């Protein structure tokens, strides 16, 4: 089995934005999107109500993991839901999404939002949403910890999140000293983010602590599975995501992710011409 290692790692830094978007950090910086293919960016946000009111999207997918607080989702097709800590929402923006993501009441919401690219052939698909509640994601225990599977075939179970492109998403918790081998498709580009504690990861046993992110080595031309060795230095919780690279030219501008600048301009024209539909409000 191909043994994964840490390719690059970094400490996430944060900026204080004030009210209502209190604090933000880039777990996956958007200017490095080509390294993360099929992922575009991941933002970690703390915000109050009024930060992410009605806005459009086109050409990609989002996966929003709620760290703390209550996240209210509203879209202009009548969708409405409230998610709590550990819950995940998947959105396929496809051709024309228009929605709002807000804190409930006076909550300070803390989220991780991952942008996942769509290949050109899927950029005009129908907008859709899927909620995965904490209790709906299967848990596989192991000696000294557990893995909760949100998406993909991991540890003998299948996560309920149904992305248009194949990905995996897992949350792994380990007790101090516990060791676990996380198995992923060898041809998937993958990254991890440390939510709590400190861990030794990969063949190099690279130490990663809370608020550190890392990309993993992979073999895009290979088939079969690969293993990532993890050993907890202290009580640790991490997220690991993986997906097969799309390898298409991608332009991300504002709320749109397309393949050409002309397509970005068309997205803005369509939005201003009302083709995304009415605002997303209660």
UniProtKB/TrEMBL annotation:
Origin superkingdom: Bacteria
Q: Where are the transmembrane segments?
A: none
Which part of the chain is the Pirin N-terminal domain? 44-116
Domain Pirin C-terminal, by residue range, is 171-277
What InterPro entries has UniProt attached to this entry? Pirin, Pirin_C_dom, Pirin_N_dom, RmlC-like_jellyroll, RmlC_Cupin_sf
Task: Quote the Pfam families the UniProt record gives.
Answer: Pirin, Pirin_C
Q: Which family does it belong to?
A: Belongs to the pirin family.
User: What PANTHER family does its record include?
Assistant: PIRIN (PTHR13903:SF8), PIRIN-RELATED (PTHR13903)
* Name of this chain's protein: Pirin domain protein
Q: Which organism is it from?
A: Exiguobacterium undae
């Amino acid at each position: 089995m191909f043994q994964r290692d840490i390719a690059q790692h970094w400490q996430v830094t944060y900026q204080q934005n004030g009210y209502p978007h209190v604090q933000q950090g880039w777990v996956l910086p958007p200017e490095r999107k080509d390294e993360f293919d099929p992922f575009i960016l991941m933002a970690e946000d703390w915000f109050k109500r009024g930060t992410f009111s009605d806005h459009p999207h086109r050409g990609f997918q989002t996966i929003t993991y709620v760290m703390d607080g209550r996240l209210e989702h509203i879209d202009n097709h009548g969708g409405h839901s409230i998610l709590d800590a550990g819950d995940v929402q998947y959105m396929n923006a496809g051709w024309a999404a228009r929605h709002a993501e807000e804190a409930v009441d006076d909550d300070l919401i803390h989220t991780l939002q991952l942008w996942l690219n769509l290949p050109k052939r899927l950029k005009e698909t129908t907008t859709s949403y899927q909620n995965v509640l904490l209790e709906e994601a299967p848990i596989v225990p192991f000696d000294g910890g557990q893995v909760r599977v949100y998406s993909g075939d991991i540890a003998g179970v299948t996560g309920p999140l149904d992305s248009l492109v194949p990905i995996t998403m897992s949350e792994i918790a380990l007790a101090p000293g516990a060791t676990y081998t996380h198995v992923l498709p060898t041809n998937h580009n993958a990254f991890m983010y440390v939510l709590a504690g400190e861990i030794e990861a990969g063949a190099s046993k690279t130490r990663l602590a809370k608020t550190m992110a890392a990309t993993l080595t992979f073999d895009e031309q290979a088939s079969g599975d690969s293993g990532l060795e993890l050993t907890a230095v202290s009580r640790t919780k991490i997220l690991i995501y993986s997906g097969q690279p799309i390898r298409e030219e991608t332009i991300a501008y504002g709320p749109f992710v397309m393949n050409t600048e002309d397509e970005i301009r068309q997205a803005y024209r369509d939005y201003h011409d009302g083709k995304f539909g009415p605002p997303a409000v209660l």
